[in-house]
Amino acid sequence: MKSSESIKTIAAAMNAVRKDIKQPEKNAKNPFFKSDYVTLEGVVDAIDKALPKGFSYTQEVASEGNQVSVSTILMSDSGEWIQFEPLTMPVTKNDAQAFGSAETYARRYSLSAIFGVTSDLDDDGNKATKSAPKEQPRKQTRTRRPANQKPDPNAKAKQDLKVRLKAISTEMKVAEKKLLVNAAGKAKVKDLSQMTKNDLSALDHELTTELMEFRQSQKKYEDKTAEAGDDFLDDLEV
């Protein structure tokens, strides 16, 4: 991920979007996966309605061989910007329809992940993925749930957050518990054992902000180190 020297304005805007965004209706049918999903237009409409004035985004598309890559860039009229790492999708069929399908899927999935839009697998993604090699079936161990216990509707979101927390903890070299407690305080999550959908979204946003600020500080350190190294080499040549 690349960014301007400061991203405070964008971070505040992203927090506002996460709070104000209304999840779009899954009004498209996916016959391949037998599920409903949100179209790219639905994702874009939900984001545009929640995005504060003075902020915008764009997506760059590139292709190489049988792959399509989409990079999303957030911008503020203050001059701040963030460019996220590109999402690359394989294209197994060499025709315009398959490339367009992969592009649509990558654009929609990237925006959904960045802005916290809940969506399902896109029908367009079928053409980009259906020819991919099938994974070998894995043996699954099922745990019986008490008859009176209802399934947790946020179970998948909690698991995704747990995986993300571990990845961020490893990169920042900070204990997972310390990182979680700090983010929960900023997100105003009072009870980690009884988190709502909004709590999970807010917590994810704070973790993302922590990671962006960490990467920004690392970049500044690397730039200063490189500059000091150049000065040192210049002195040696005198």
Word description of this protein:
With 238 residues, the protein is an alpha+beta fold. It has helices at residues 8-20, 40-50, 96-115, 124-129, 155-172, 176-187, 197-237, and strands spanning 2-3, 28-30, 35-37, 55-64, 67-76, 81-83, 87-90. The strands form 2 sheets. Strands 1, 4, 5, 6 and 7 form a 5-stranded antiparallel β-sheet that branches. A two-stranded antiparallel sheet has the order 2-3. Strand 4 and strand 5 (67-76) form a beta hairpin. Helix 1 (8-20) runs antiparallel to helix 7 (197-237), helix 2 (40-50) packs parallel to helix 3 and helix 6 crosses helix 7. The radius of gyration is 21 Å and the shape is globular. The protein starts with a strand and ends with a helix. The model is unreliable at 29-35 and 131-136 (pLDDT under 50).
- Shape descriptor reads globular
Largest sheet: 5 strands, antiparallel
Low-confidence stretches: 29-35, 131-136
Counted beta strands: 7
Overall pLDDT metric: 77
Rg value: 21 Å
The residue fraction in helices comes out at 40-55%
Give the helix/strand class: alpha+beta
N-to-C CA distance? 38 Å
Number of helices: 7
Strand content: 5-15%
SSE order: EHEEHEEEEHHHHH
Keywords:
7 strands; 7 helices; 51% helix; alpha+beta; single chain; five-stranded antiparallel beta sheet; two-stranded antiparallel ribbon; 238 residues
Summarize the structure.
Helices cover 51% and strands 15% of the residues.
Secondary structure blueprint with pairings:
Layout: E1 2-3, H1 8-20, E2 28-30, E3 35-37, H2 40-50, E4 55-64, E5 67-76, E6 81-83, E7 87-90, H3 96-115, H4 124-129, H5 155-172, H6 176-187, H7 197-237
Helix pairs in contact: 1-7, 2-3, 5-7, 6-7
